[in-house]
TrEMBL record:
InterPro entries: VPS50
GO molecular function, one term: SNARE binding
The protein's name in its UniProt record: Uncharacterized protein
Taxonomic path: Eukaryota, Sar, Alveolata, Dinophyceae, Gonyaulacales
GO biological process: endocytic recycling; retrograde transport, endosome to Golgi
Signal peptide: none
PANTHER family associated with the record: SYNDETIN
GO cellular component: cytosol; EARP complex
Organism: Alexandrium catenella
Length: 173
């Protein structure tokens, strides 16, 4: 498995460098949550008429993208965004489970070297401690989107609003 190969490579580094593996992984996850949120909103937004589309795509922030979105795209954008954000939660859970299983196998004799086992433990510790941070980052993105979208009637009809409300409830549960 490629992930295991990467962890093995880190285990060959000096201990102080290997300690940062979990932190780097989580930094990457956090950056990806922000980038995916932006890309999702970008797919449903339109550049203002006074700006070139390429400049807009390059520099627009999530807030700008949400403000420029046609209300008819709110539900589709929210659904797609939530799907991607849930995927981050599932992947985080999968990584934690993978580390638990790999440690179990190491304890049963498929141990490998001590440096690799130490990296496994360190990354699992970071992953376990970071579950709340991943959820908080996701909540920040959802809050930003929901606070920025124009929910004013008649721009957004009641059915669309209720659909977004339902999707948000599903994400939270």
């Amino acid at each position: 498995e490629r992930y295991e190969e990467i962890l093995r490579a880190y285990s060959m580094m000096s201990p102080d460098q290997a300690l940062s593996v979990g932190k780097e992984l989580l930094r990457h996850v956090s950056e990806c949550i922000v980038a995916v949120s932006r890309q999702c909103a970008l797919a449903f937004s339109a550049a203002p008429s006074h700006e070139s589309a390429s400049d807009w795509h390059r520099k627009a922030q999530l807030r700008d993208l949400c403000r420029s979105m046609d209300p008819s795209h709110f539900v589709a954008c929210t659904a797609q965004l939530y799907e991607h954000l849930c995927d981050f939660l599932y992947r985080h859970r999968f990584l934690c489970a993978w580390h638990v299983e790999r440690e179990r196998r190491a304890a049963e004799g498929d141990a490998g070297d001590a440096g690799f086992r130490e990296v496994l433990r360190e990354v699992l510790t970071e992953l376990s401690a970071s579950k709340r941070n991943v959820w908080d980052r996701i909540q920040q993105q959802v809050s930003l989107v929901l606070m920025t979208l124009d929910f004013q009637y008649p721009a957004l009809n009641e059915d669309s609003f209720l659909h977004i409300l339902h999707l948000t409830q599903l994400l939270i549960e």
